[in-house]
Design a protein that fits this description.
It is globular and about 55 Å long. The two termini are about 30 Å apart. It is an alpha+beta fold and about 170 residues long. It has a four-stranded antiparallel sheet, covered by helices on one side. It contains six helices and four strands; from the N terminus they run αααββαββαα. Helices cover about 40% and strands about 20% of the residues. The longest helix has 19 residues.
């Protein structure tokens, strides 16, 4: 399991660095780590020191990165057709937060069947950069509504707020 996760992280780091997408590297590494860990748990050998007999049960997984105009899609294929199910982890649980983290960090995520197994994917937004190197916010039209109507609309930069919440939860 360790080699699959580490190899996937190295692949992701090299690829995103070559693509000039370093601003999303930390989030992408966390997402790929969680997706690969889930794939290995679903189909692979999880023992740290497997025997030769256990290695015969080893299944392949595939990691694919797709660069789009304003986002990066991380896909992980495994041979287990069952879709992952998000769980509600308590404060004392050591596991069960992976899909919650993926949901918090990604624009969207999902699964689809493929080649006798499934692909679990997550789309990570990549915002344009200004000349000063800061992400550029999209301009929004001025509000003409009342403050009560403004409260009903989603915040103009939900991605930034989501990242702040995740960062605060890590403290």
């Amino acid at each position: 399991m360790l080699t699959a996760v580490n190899s996937s992280r190295v692949f992701t780091k090299i690829t995103l660095t070559k693509w000039g997408a370093g601003r999303v590297l930390d989030d992408a590494l966390l997402i790929v780590s969680e997706l690969v860990t889930n794939a290995v748990k679903a189909t692979g050998v999880t023992e740290p020191n497997p025997t030769w007999g256990e290695l015969s049960k080893l299944k392949l997984i595939n990691v694919r990165l797709v660069g789009l105009e304003s986002s990066i899609v991380i896909e992980v294929w495994d041979c287990e057709p069952k879709e992952p199910v998000p769980t509600e982890a308590t404060d004392d649980d050591e596991n069960g937060r992976g899909l919650t983290l993926i949901d918090a960090l990604s624009k969207r995520w999902g699964t689809y069947p493929s080649r006798g197994g499934k692909v679990v994917w997550a789309e990570l937004p990549v915002h344009p950069v200004t000349a000063k190197g800061l992400p550029r916010r999209r301009k929004s039209s001025p509000s003409t509504g009342t403050p009560a109507e403004a409260d009903e609309r989603p915040p103009p930069d939900a991605y930034l707020l989501r990242r702040l919440i995740v960062a605060l939860q890590r403290l």
